[in-house]
Amino acid sequence: MARALRGPFDYRLPEELRDGAVGVGSMLVVPFGRREVLGVVVGLAESSEVAAEKLLAPLRALELGVPAEMVALAEWIAAEYCSTLARALGLVLPPGATRRLSGRKRRAVKRTEHLAVGARSPQTPQATAEQQAVLDVLQAALARRTAHERLLHGVTGSGKTEVYLRAAETALEQGRGAIVLVPEIALTPQIVGRFIERFGETVAVMHSKLRPGERYAEWRRLREGDARICVGPRSAVFAPIEQLGLIVVDEEHDASYKHEGDPRSGAVLLLGSATPRAESARRVARLTLRERVDGRPLPAVDVLDMRGDSSEIAQHGLHPATAQALSEVRATREKAIVLLNRRGWSNFLSCRSCGHVWGCPHCDVALVLHRAGGFVACHHCGHRERAPQRCDACASTSVARHGGGTERLQHELAAVLDEDGAFPVFRLDADVLSGAGAAAQAPAASARGDVGALLRRFEAARCGALIGTQMVAKGHDFPDVTLGVVLDADATLRFPDFRAEERTFALIAQLAGRVGRGAKGRVLVQTLAPDARAIALAARHDSDGFLAGELQRREALSYPPFSHLIRVVCSAERSDRARDAASAVRDRFAAHMRESMAGGAAGATVLGPASLFRLRGREREVLVIKAAERRSAVQAVGEAVQAVSAGREHPGVNFSVDVDPQ
Known about the structure:
alpha/beta, six-stranded parallel sheet, 21% strand
């Protein structure tokens, strides 16, 4: 497909493809210029504005198309997100569709086995009174077969997954299907395993880590109705399930979803989280689960002030209370989870002699040291180079390392806690997920990139510690974890983002939720800002109080959910060209909105252009549009960007539009 084309384009339907053989959603191989490309039928018409002698005919039809309602969804996406229909259709096509132009059938592939991780019951547990009250509402909504939205706000350990399972069971009993979205499939093996254990072959799992043949096989099972439940990350929302009854968005606060979308096909949309976003809390009616299913209390949280005399801070950047707590966990043969939301060994390197800092040649950021691999890397563009032994500028061998990440923390804690080999220290971060950090793991953790295997080893260990980035706080359920630690908890507060407090609160609350599920637990939060609202309320497990204050703050500043944001980034090799293009978009958008306001439309505020750091060798300028009315603003931005990009005044400039940036 020509993804940049706006289309659609008219073709003549030959006699052999008539009589119902081709309809909306059919996939055809069509001539396009000198190429053969994949086309999707978006409509059938009796006539065309193109002269009959100029209309070309498709070359052939492929075996399976996409449901007509998915074509309608793609049209909605294109309009809602300033995209093209070709790009939007690319989201709903079968995996590897563009490789199937030859029409050759794929060979059967063996399905990937998904092993369960974490606490599970050999039989279906009895619903608690709170769970049953929630299910009564959801089952009534499913019975009405109309679009319906609910936010399931439940504390960690309150049994949200069991609610999802029973709601999906109701949908199946009605002859309908379900889509269950999870933030990252590799990090949430427990929920995947629970659905497969409950529903067996009825479940298809789709995610980017599958081989193309495996993804297509799962897509086909859903398309043909052999599977009726799809579990996966955000792309699974495009699963070709007919008679869709339920969409679940687990951990709906997670930014990886970007946008949860609207219910379609009369489905029930269930958003679940212990720390819901302010937008969801205001927009969607809430159902609550306030107690853990086993009746255990949430763990006590102690906030540790790191502003004192540095001599009081233990080695490895640990507060004395943290070091003592980890020693006690080791002595009693229990388990701990330690969160440090920064990977690598050192944040950056500098020369002690001349002050040179090793930076990325393509981005305006410092390179991070990964000692196990012997390289420094850019966490934005992926650039790598060998770790320096001497200064490039002055040839000095005095190279200093600054700060620390999860790789260093694992090494140093293992040296202290696992000196006798009886207290393993595991690490979970993006390096481990990609396989790049497997060498730094214990010998038993040699399976490169297999996060499920790593989590199962942590589960099977008699005792130990799991350290990592925010990945360690994502939905894991290990009953024998009695200690949770958050290091540098205020780091996210220092980001220039209006969602910084929300993300800080969620990070602490989610990590706390992994602790004390099978025994008494405690959580330690190290911070330089112990009085920060997000940290203090997270320590009290006061989600309602945080949401109330956050909504009040955002309303005063006119941030979402009280407005809509659109982000436009213009990038070029030269900064002046990027700024000129951004200014042109701003001026065209402003002119369009002035005309709209004359007709009674709501106005908008434009912030920028402002410079962003250089990324992948390109200078960037950003505009942020804050609008009270979404649809007119999106349309105006789309028209402004299209007009500026179509002209010849801004050669070499790339334009990116992000509606509802996260």
